[in-house]
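Sequence in, structure out.
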Amino acid sequence: MRTKVAIIGSGPSGLLLGQLLTNAGIDNIIIDRVGKEHILARVRAGVLEEGMVGMLDRAGVGARMHREGLPHDGFSLAFDGRDHRIDLFDLTGGKRVMVYGQTELTLDLIERRERDGGITIHDAANVTPAGFDGDSPYLTYDKDGVSHRIDCDFIAGCDGFHGASRKAVPEAAIKTFEKVYPFGWLGILADVPPVNHELIYANHPRGFALCSMRSNTRSRYYVQCSLDDTVDMWSDDRFWDELRRRLPAHHAEALVTGPSFEKSIAPLRSFVAEPMRFGKLFLCGDAAHIVPPTGAKGLNLAASDAHYLSSALREFYDEKSSAGIDAYSAKALARVWKAVRFSWWMTSMLHRFPDEGEFAARIQIAELDYLVSSKAASTSLSENYVGLPF
């Protein structure tokens, strides 16, 4: 089998890259080690930057997002028992974000790919990229007990933090940067109306809390927890009680509770691998970088990588120019590091760190107080939150 671009991974970055390439008339095959049902069962991010919304429109997969997604013009920062709204729309000259679950976005991309007749190979074992340091890259994989090979011009590694793509790169050729945070997020999904029409980010002496949503009838809530905690230590009642404690009184009183249907604990880390290109192999999305979810940047960075890489490949095939693919890594990483900084800053400002005392807590409150009282500081936050330009 042969194609122009072999894409490893059928999450949002792989699917979006595949759709952008398909729309440009560039043949591609997507291959994944798991099935479609497993991918659609993942519970992930739900805040889309304005630039990503535009990209999904250009890819031809934005219709349902506009029907069912929730445009948000701001969010609340809660601290010291008070609630402060950040007016994204006003501070950025008319930009906003869209709340639309990653599961829904992934389904839209899958359905569009199926309508277009795109090839996706699921349940492929031992997927291995090879030959990417020369002129004849290829993938090998096993399926149903049979070994297969896909020859291609380029390989796009969109297979996540634990995927095969980055692992295939010689250790001496790659440099990694990592910060692991000393806490996790306990998150639940429940079919209850959101406590607020916009997101609430709360700094509290007991730890961080986030009130988010997937729709007007489905809420997504998080509380900071210990890395030693397990899900079975947190009954629904304990979770709701803890969330109430960390919110300003008027939000705590308005909180509607109910049974959760998903509950999980996620560790937090910042991670970047450099470079993002190795000959004919390109890393994209979580395969190259991870951010803590505080800044809502992980999914959006995967989309901007797909944008940069699809544009570079289109230039290669349409104009016979390698300038775009030569610049891909530097261009993507420049945006990645800005988002890594923003996510680290938001995480540092809103969470309680177990090895830091009251001095650090007072510095957080002072910074938050300055942030909400200074238009310049609020504007900087807002510009990063709605997404820096591609």
